[in-house]
C-alpha cells in the first residue's frame, strides 16, 4: 500500500532511530523524487524559491550593513578593508540583480504560456519565442526582434 507522501517507484526511506553521539534523529525528511516520476523540475524550482525566499530579505539587509561598513572604513582610511567590503557588496548586488532577472523571465514565460492558451482557445496558433525574444519581451526592448513578435506593454499606452 502506497502512502500519499511516498514517491512512486521508490523504496521507503528508512530512518535510523538510534541516537548517535547525543544527536537527535531528524524528524522531517523531504523525500527526493525523480523528475520522471511525476515532479516537474519547474515545480521543484518554484518550491525551492518559496522555501528560501527569506534569503532575499537577508541579502538586502546585508547590503545595507555593508554599505554602512564601507562608508565607515573609507572614513577611517582603511583602504584594504574598504576594498574587501566593496567587493563583497558588489557580489551581493550582482546576486540580487540576477535574481530579479530570473524572476522577470519566469514571469514573462508564465504570461506567454497564458497568452498561448488563450490564443489556442480562440483557434489561433500559439506564439513560440526563442531566448533572445523572451529576454527582449521581459525587458520591453525590441532590439533585434521582429516587431510583430514582441509586444511591450507600458503604462503610457
Short note summarizing the structure:
With 157 residues, the chain is mostly helical. The chain has helices at residues 41-51, 54-76, 79-121, 131-139. Helix content is 55%, strand content 0%.
Secondary structure topology:
Elements: H1 41-51, H2 54-76, H3 79-121, H4 131-139
Helix pairs in contact: 2-3, 3-4
Question: Could you characterize the architecture of this molecule?
Answer:
Belongs to the RRP36 family. Its main location: nucleus. InterPro entries: RRP36 (IPR009292). The protein has 157 residues and is mainly α. The chain has a domain of 88 residues. 55% of the residues lie in helices and 0% in strands. It is built from 4 helices and no strands. The chain is elongated. About 4% of the residues have low confidence.
